Amino acid sequence: MKFTETNLKAGNHQTSSHSVTSDKDFEADQEGQELTLDDVIPKLDKPWFRTPHLLRLNILLLCGMLSNVSLGYDGSMLNGLQSLPAWRKYFNHPSGAILGTLANGTNFGYIVLLPFASFICDKWGRKRSLIAGCIAVVAGATMQGFSNSYGLFLASRIILGAGAFLNVVASAPLVSETAYPTHRAIITAITLSIWSFGAFLAAAMTYAPYMSLFRDNNWSWRIPSLIQLFVPAIQICFAIFAPESPRWLIFKGRYEEALEILAKYHAGGDRDSPLVKFEMAEIIATLEMEKAQNRTDWGEWFKTKATMHRLSLVIAVGAFSQISGNALIAYYLTIMLNNMGVTNTAEQLRINMALTIWGLTAAITFALCVKNFGRRPMFLTAFGGMCTAYVIFTILSARNAATDFKDKNIGIASIAMMFIFSTFQHMATPVNLTYVMEICPFSLRAKGSTIYQVTCGICIIFNNYVNNIAMDAIKWKYYIVWCIWIAVEFTIVFFFYPETRGLALEEISAVFGEEIYHGDANDYGIRTFEGQAAEVGPDGTTRNGEKDGILHQKVEPV
């Protein structure tokens, strides 16, 4: 496809026109046909892991992809600690609200940092915010490992939670905004799926000391607590060398740095790559539009029907990721197994570890399918399967209780159904963060990440208090509540979740009925379509009388 560009010299309005044609796929049968991302993505002659610039980028993005390991580790570790006699004895056998408060320690840290997280990410940048969060997690994990009282253990979890919150709020935009366009969906999906790796790591690190010489002393729980600091330490090492989000740099007016990063990591150093020019043009135009419309404050969520729809989806995705019955397994597996008649500590730890291995395998497998199957089909299949599995699990639990846990076959079938439920749960897991990052425009993306994490935190607080009390009070009957609620979730997904597969971040506005914006392929300039030019400067101003200096294209909702 062929298109015309005019370089606009800053400050003097002098222009020099020239024609630019890509190496391939730029020629069009029809003059004036619009460019898409598919037109400028180069066809590589070897896989990404044999392409140096893509391999380097994906390795460095581990600094953000590993963020959820800390969250997964924390949830599974606390689950395992409840099975350790030394931990229960040291903290005077916590239960009820006391246990719930310990479990909620990290969520209290979320609340502490809530007013500041998105501001820090937008002010400092994604990369520095991530490093700051990692440092706090290292400090919290160290304090937790050496805690000598309930109060200190709780305080360490609050610090750990605050750091983890800033970490994940910064990492999600960093990964989605910096990843190679065709890798974005899968990498973002893996970022959340890797939660399961943290859960597996914690289960293994809790099981190993218990089965060793540390079985009956406090190091059986101090060792897994201290190991929690190693992942954020590794993140810091990667983050030091990782690129900053080019979209954040452009938002701050640092065009040259953004161009350098896009060229280095998306085109192997070729600043004249059609892909780099396309990305720069589209990002600049979109961000300048957002600045012109003042789409940078929290009130933006309530200004239009489209942004309110986005806000509703962010909250729904965050809530559904935590209140779908999965928290019972994640945080209260010990209580559930006790209610099923499985009371041996070693056996409980083995089941916990098996579930985390199963979950990790399922999550990574489904993360690799995100690009091919779309968001809606995976959400709908996940919630439909979860609902079916939970209904069967509830029936089996009722039968198990009626036989006073004497029928081992029912117990085995109940545990098997937990694994089946976990499979469908982890089908939704990799889509959650991908979807949230896609539906939020740049100026609201850090805020969207904050809202998503806060929603998760609030739901976890609910789970940690209500689930514990409900399980003690009504046993298996509490599962009925979740069967009904998951069916409600399926209905909401079916009617209100739009598909976003196959679109660039700047193009997803179309699915909400909004306009998309295209700019020049250079830092300054104009781009001509069907003979109609709209000049675009880096400050969003116009030099030809257009309403805001940005070429508008109305796209019907899909």
From TrEMBL:
Primary localisation category: membrane
Gene3D superfamilies: MFS general substrate transporter like domains
Transmembrane domains' residue ranges: 54-73, 93-117, 152-174, 186-207, 219-242, 311-333, 353-370, 377-398, 410-428, 449-466, 478-497
Annotated GO CC locations: membrane
UniProt keywords, alphabetically: Membrane, Transmembrane, Transmembrane helix, Transport
Domain of life, source organism: Eukaryota
Subcellular locations according to the entry: Membrane
Listed Polar residues bias regions: 1-20
Topological relation to the membrane, as annotated: Multi-pass membrane protein
Chain spans, region Disordered: 1-25
GO MF annotations in UniProt: carbohydrate:proton symporter activity
PROSITE patterns linked: MFS
Domain Major facilitator superfamily (MFS) profile: 60-501
Family affiliation: Belongs to the major facilitator superfamily. Sugar transporter (TC 2.A.1.1) family.
This protein's name: Major facilitator superfamily (MFS) profile domain-containing protein
Organism: Babjeviella inositovora NRRL Y-12698
